[in-house]
Amino acid sequence: MNQTSDDDPWLGTLERFPTVYHARASWLYDINTESLQKAIFAGLRSLAQEKKPLEITVADIPGYQPGGVVFRFGVGNKDGFDILDAKEVERVIRRIEEKGTFRTLDLVFHLHYSLDDGKRHKVHQDQYLARLTFQPGRVELLLHHLKGVRRLAPDELVRILLSATNRELGQNKYPELELESLSST
Question: In terms of Cα–Cα distance, which of 175, 142, 166 is closest to 39?
Fold first, then answer.
């Protein structure tokens, strides 16, 4: 997209977010919201560049097999998502700097699984929608499992996002987020 932040009022938000949540978490923070939101996006970009090891089951092989998961992310934009590549992260950061922080931020997480045996397997993906609501000193995260078999549990995904954000905060010498609460179904 070649829109600027000025003519894209829906950037960061979906018009309709699901009302069923598979995880709910709240994080406490002690930095300014702009720095936190920049760290969240940096954390998402770093997650998208690595393959996380994961034991996986597939129908044609008994038991758990060594494999991994690769993350792809998108940022809400009214009725869909813009793929969160380097250019989109730059656009979102520019929006934060020019117009201020997001009060609500909607994201999509695509989880692509693979086995490490060198063979081709049909391994189903998972897709989650996340809504982050920012309040002074506190972020509430709502997670909806949209499709897939939940190879990665909702609470584990919340912890992975928290860890990636804290890694970015630590690299910039900011205090880390604290997990206040986490519930999952």
Answer: 166
Q: Which residues pair with 73 in a beta bridge?
A: 109
State the pairing for strand pair 51-58/61-77: antiparallel
pLDDT 10s digits, 116-162: 887 877 788 999 999 999 999 999 999 999 999 999 999 999 999 99
| Residue 5 confidence (pLDDT) | 41
Amino acid at 4: T
Residues 38 and 93: their CA atoms lie apart, in Å, by 7
CA atoms within a 13 Å half-sphere pointing along the CA-CB vector of 147: 5
Predicted TM-score of the model (pTM): 0.90
Residue with tokens 């397997």: 121
Q: What is the pLDDT of residue 62?
A: 87
Q: Give the C-alpha separation, 45 to 73, whole Å.
A: 8
- The end-to-end CA distance of the chain, in Å, is 36
Length of the chain: 185
Q: What is the CATH number of domain 5-184?
A: 3.30.530
